[in-house]
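2024-03-11 09:14:02 INFO receiving multi-entity request
2024-03-11 09:14:02 INFO entity count = four
2024-03-11 09:14:03 INFO echoing inputs for audit
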Amino acid sequence: MDVKTLCLGVLIRGEASGYEIKKQLEEGPLAQFCRAGFGSIYPALGQLKAKGLVTWSEHSQEGRPDKKIYRITDQGIAAFRKALRKEPSDDRVHSESLFMIFFQGFLDSGRAAEIVDAYRETYRQIATRMRVADLTEAPAGHRFVHAIGQSIYEAIVDAVERNRHLLSEDVDKKALATEK
Amino acid sequence: MDVKTLCLGVLIRGEASGYEIKKQLEEGPLAQFCRAGFGSIYPALGQLKAKGLVTWSEHSQEGRPDKKIYRITDQGIAAFRKALRKEPSDDRVHSESLFMIFFQGFLDSGRAAEIVDAYRETYRQIATRMRVADLTEAPAGHRFVHAIGQSIYEAIVDAVERNRHLLSEDVDKKALATEK
DNA sequence: GCGTCCATGTAAATGGTTACATGATTAT
DNA sequence: ATAATCATGTAACCATTTACATGGACGC
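2024-03-11 09:21:47 INFO inference complete, emitting structure
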């Protein structure tokens, strides 16, 4: 999904400024699969304007640049629906942590364990946050995606715990050697 | 991870041609987190050559371009180790399927169910392939990453099955209406 | 004083995808 | 016949990241 479609996806749920779009992509329910910086959002919004897929209104503020509230147009909704009609591409997972652990033999001693502990902690936090989210009002699509996400994150935490011993064998050996 | 580091990661496990590097990234144990086309691999290899991180030997073949077998140098190994010493960036998951399902309300009727079934099937196949893989000879890092991957894919298949009903409510309603 | 939140935007640099160019062999 | 496999590489294009530019308010 390019940033233009991402923006339409946010705006179809309600009007927002560029700044707010970024926040929603970071904190909202889409946060898990999307990311975009200002350097891609603002130009994307510019292109959407040019194509008539969004309109905007300026709200002047004191001591700050004018806030531009964007709103999706009927054409924008049509374009978004069209984008949704494509075949979805294959999922892509980029995990530098797992890449590094894969090459554990080339890592400094103990580094794999460090990476893995941070990894587990990251997902433990995300899973905890998701567990307390209230989705009673949310549409089916939101609840489905949330459920899949939560299952994945819990599976990661669980799997890391179950397999961590694979990476600490040399540490254990050292510990044993010290005991003697 | 940029493609240069990916190439070094493949070559550190054994010499290979550009073509073979791509195959290993697609089929090998790294396939889950990496992807690279020829358009990025060949230039990357060129840069690695220029920096002295790999050497190569040409093997002439009949009816085909000469095959260039690349081998990592000591400098290359050092550079790879250095790349592994960085802090790993956050994982990034790009899932157009889940993005689309999130916006189920804007999808054509029945389309969400189609996407979800294909999604489940994709991961069911990957999970099956992983379950039969033989890793008895593999180093700890490989086994760890494999185990995490397998857990994730199984969790997805499972979670899709448990939550599919969320998306077929309107279908059920239609079925009920037809029965009457 | 320092960091963070608010708020917009541009420009350069990076990096990757896609399409093209070439062409023999083998399997369906 | 047609597609896939093997094999390399370039060039145009596209998108995104990063850094820069500006600046007030507010909490620590």
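2024-03-11 09:21:48 INFO post-check: The mean pLDDT of chain B is 91.
2024-03-11 09:21:48 INFO post-check: Residues 2-3, 36-37, 39-40, 43, 62-65 of chain B lie near DNA strand C (CB under 10 Å from a C1').
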